[in-house]
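[agent] plan:
  1. take the single chain provided in the ticket
  2. run structure prediction with default settings
  3. attach structure tokens to the ticket
  4. add a short note for the reviewer (M.T.)
[agent] executing step 1
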Amino acid sequence: MKDAFGAPQSLLVLGGTSAIGLATARRLIARRTRTVWLAGRPSPALTDAADSLRALGADVHTVPFDALDPESHAERLGKVFAEGDVDMVLLAFGIPGDQARDESDPLAAVRVAQTNYTGAVSAGLVCAQALQAQGHGALVVLSSVAGERARRADFIYGSSKAGLDAFAQGLGDALYGTGVHVMVVRPGAVRTHTAAGAGRPGASGQAGNAGDAGNGSADTVLATTPEAVATAIELGLRRHSETVWVPGALRAVMTAVRHMPRPLFRRLPV
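[agent] step 2 finished; step 3 output follows
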């Protein structure tokens, strides 16, 4: 259960090496979160992530998780909930793909869709059912501004995020009144140390950043950081928000973009 300050005492991060997921875990540990589960493919990076959170005083566990193996989700995630109530689940996995390559390689494009959407639907429903069974908890889903309107530069990734966003909104409506709160987070381009080295904002592996991996001048101006997203997530939970934009100015910007005539939108440098 949440403590007297409203912070979750237990946290499950789906995408255990996600920069946003780990930033959120660090912030919540500072606010009295005591038990953390990191779900991801077994790797040295996952082990290091767990060790870094243990150093902050949390009881941290890892659990094998692969978005592309939905048949295993119920069993592996079910074991986490069998250990005790989980106050918050953060769905933070996703891959940006490579638009130029994926357009000419349908199987690569399908992998983006299966990871970002199909895998998230499976894991999201498994966790939603477990949260509902325990009668409380929050499911936080990292979407992206890329899902608001398909762009030439990243429409494969953007379409997967559009599907995820719609799914999470519908799931939130389905769970309304059950004690389970679903919150959709829509970050802009997320700058990470790893992404900077790779030369692309938001670039990551399957268990990594689920934020916008776009580029262009608009992304640069409205870029954010994992720490900023973590701060917004904490504030959104306190306010019981259903949708959170990071940075907040993106709400107005994307409203204008969403209603822009298509011929004009095609001419934008995005």
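[agent] step 4 note for reviewer: The longest strand covers residues 180-187.
[agent] ticket updated
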